[in-house]
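Structure tokens please, single chain.
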Amino acid sequence: MVPNVRFEVDDLDLDWTYRRDHFDFIHSRNIAQSIRDWPKYLRQMYKRVSPARRRYMAHPLTRSYCSHTKPGGYIELAEGSTSLCCNDGTFTGSALESYLAKLRAALQVAGFTLPTGEALKAFVEDAGFVDVQLHPIKQPWGAWPKDPEMKKVGQIIALTCATGLEVRLPPSSANLSPVLTRDVTKSYGMAPLTRYLGMKPEQVLAECAESLAEVNSCKVHAYQLMLHVVGRKPEGN
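Here you go.
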């Protein structure tokens, strides 16, 4: 690991305690399922506060709680849309469409804001950043595109689905079929679907297996927009 990199585990919803003007660049990626208050999250990056709060933060004992992005510094949000696109109708009625619809419903019940490019851009602008730009990037789910470069991207996304749709199963799952007990380490669906929609783990795993089979079959020509929003903090702030 390079010497100027270190990893910290913390709660982004709490007040940040980095020193004043600490970051030249803040990159935030794939955490939409963890952030319930996007305006607050962006204010933490910019640290836009009321005059009374600013006087409090100027005190020597609280000075470390001031601005986190340096004037002239940049931030970037990178979030995948939770809705897939399709230009030929193969996504309609698919298991993948059903799975993602349930996932969106569960996340909304849990109180999360589903990211859209327009919403993310507005959050960044409202926090005070300028020169805000939205860059939607097309990501096919599976190796179905004819274009070699996009096919390669789709293959990578398919591998991500294999480790992202499902979850490592608890010991009680020993009697499930091998296709449902794939040893994977991450999950987007298991926790929200069981906690907020009341689905059984076996149901979630079955839907994950069907969705993954469709992605690998290349019969469903769906793609996702990866939403990159970039903004700059003005000089003199």
